Amino acid sequence: MNTKATALRSSYTKQAYNDFLDAHPTEENHLELIENTLFKKFIDSGDLNEGEIARFAYNVFVTRRILESLYDDISTIEGVFLISKVVEQGYFKLVKDFETLTLKNNLAIAKEFGAFFTPLKIAREMAKLAVESSRSKVIIDPCCGTGNLLAACLEYSSKSGIQIKKLIGVELDELSASICKKILDEYKTHLGLDVEIEVIASDSLSMLSSQGQLFDHSFEPGTFIINPPYGKLKFDSDRAKNNETNLSIKDDHIDNKKAKTAEWKLKIKGALSGLGIGKGAMEWSKVFLVLCSNNLDKDESLIFIGPCGWLNSVSQSEIRKDIFNRKLFNSIHFISETNTGFETVNQPLALVCLKQMSKNKSIKVSNDFEPAESVKYSELEILKKYNYPIPRISFDRLKVFIKLQSYKKIRDVTGIRNLRGELDQSLNKSILTTKKTSLKVVRGKDIGRYMNINDSGDETYYADKIEFFNQLSTKPKGSAHKNLRIVGRQCSYMKQERRLIFDVVPPNSVVGNSCNYMTVEDDADIYFYLALLNSALMDWYFRVLNGNNHVANYEIDDFPVPDIDKRTKAIISKQVEIIKAARGDSSNVKATTYFEDEYKLDALIFKAFKLTRVEVRTIMTGYSKKYIDQTIEVINDN
Question: Which one, of 589, 583, 587, 588, lies nearest residue 459 by Cα?
């Protein structure tokens, strides 16, 4: 569907330009064309050059041309979703220039307003949950876009025979709202369904009452189904300059955007006071999650998809605590970044069903599209003392996770400092030089597991000593380069064989902010901690809770540390020396992989935590049978 929509847009973009020039030759015409679209809302809070406004206008013109050719095919759900994809792409596949009439992705508008529409496979799963679980058979989508989720509800109603009483959609983008109403009316007629449909072109957040209720009281109770916008209520200057989102802006653009965002943030915070929004940055999906969960009526549900980080991050523990204590969790479906189906979303998601009913005694948990397993609330009670994390694992693995909670954490170890790299590679760019100095710069791409990558390659950078002294020497981490340190990559994709990638760097290494680093009180222990961070056990532990593509310092702080004697530490450290000697420095290896000779280290770490052979086999999924058997054999021998 993505490919078909892109092909249509590419073809129409090349064909329709002369018609566009004839019908809309002036800047005034361009502004009229983008009226009632997200493009207009975007420029209302910022200042762009006329060339950008012309590009926006042409995209709207092309979108409408394509839709005219597709409206006859609203008889199938695939036709409905193709229309949706055309509208979505209209906001991020912009015409690059008017000479070549080619397309270029730009996510400035899509990211500001969360214009990422739900793929069919996920929409069908959400629709099934909504239609089956709703008592009133009134289904409400507060961020309906062109109606993907509501159309999927119509499809499921037709197939299942479960009658829907009413569909309600609210949409900020007036263009999408009008398309949504047209699609739903025609699709329900084709299916022969008698369903009342109401689509409101408005910002659902503007309907907030002083009590924090989502809608006016005239709205009847119902089940919420929602794919909310993602992203923080914050405008960073980098967004105006980033390759993914940069546009041709005027001088006041950034200041205006920041002021508008701050105004929104203040208004929303006031409306949400007392609703348990929790600590941390204000984020759109979190706002809608809190609003909808606090407006659930008895025997109604909230079907919600969003980034899965809220299920385990420390900053959002208050939200989880509230939902957990009210026993709203009914099911959680974790979806890895490679299986979401979203064209422009590259992070793992969670599809959550919350239901307001007292008899909820267990949560169904599934990963990707595997069968769900039930975890009882009583089995999760122990997690209360650890900020209510919701692990993405079965009960057998949950028992291992809980066992590890009995150990002290890295944050509790005296003398350990766990921080992000001291060199901001953008802000302190003038420090970087290719001329060799005594201060070598270490970036994420330079770090492999137990080895240094590209040590003699063309991309080696150093720190200019005068610039370094002037910019960083008086900062809190200005003397960190003097220490022997463990350094790890901060960027970590879920599909990697090993997500934790650490090595030791010598003194006089300046660490970039694409890395995290750790110093220990006794340098003699540094190889032990390197083995711990690179171990299969910590990699598993990290995956259980992590919900994005980064390794954060607070996540490292939460890693358990075994209580072992100096002799055992020395044995582990000696094995690290052997592995590092075998690796050397290389530019010809895959930095994210593990090697077959690591099984002894993994076994020693498992043994240090007193894990049984059964427990080890339970969590070592994804490894070769040979590697698992060798690991178990070492555990048996020791």
Answer: 587
- Among candidate residues 559, 560, 546, 556, the one with its CA nearest the CA of residue 313: 546
N- to C-terminal Cα distance for the chain?
55
What is the C-alpha separation between 4 and 86, in angstroms, rounded? 9
Q: Nearest to residue 432, comparing CAs of 446, 449, 412, 418?
A: 446
Partners of 441 in beta bridges: 510
pLDDT band at 266; cut points 50, 70, 90: confident
pLDDT for position 100: 94
pLDDT for residue 194: 95
β partners of residue 448: 451
Measured distance CA(207)–CA(213) in Å, rounded: 8
Question: Which residue intervals of 348-454 are DSSP H helices?
Answer: 377-380, 395-404
- DSSP secondary structure letter of residue 236: -
Provide the token pair at 1: 């569907």
Asked whether residue 169 carries a pLDDT value surpassing 60, the answer given is yes
**Stretch (H or E) spanning 166:** strand 166-171
Higher pLDDT, 249 or 505: 505
Whether the Cβ atoms of residue 544 and residue 391 lie closer than 8 Å to each other: yes
Centre a 10 Å sphere on the Cβ of residue 126 and count the other Cβ atoms it contains: 27
Alpha helix segments (H runs only) across 480-623: 526-534, 536-545, 553-557, 566-583, 599-608, 613-619
Give the C-alpha separation, 82 to 103, whole Å. 18
Which residues are within 8 A (CB) of 109 and not within 5 positions of it... i.e. 6 or more apart?
38, 39, 42, 91, 92, 115
Sheet holding 432-433, edge to edge: 432-433, 462-463, 440-442, 509-511
Q: Left, alpha or beta for 631 (phi > 0: left; psi -120 to 50: alpha)? A: alpha
Residue whose C-alpha is closest to residue 155's, from 142, 168, 164: 164
Q: How far apart are CA 419 and CA 422, in angstroms?
A: 8
DSSP label at 114? Answer: T
Q: How far apart are CA 54 and CA 94, in angstroms?
A: 11
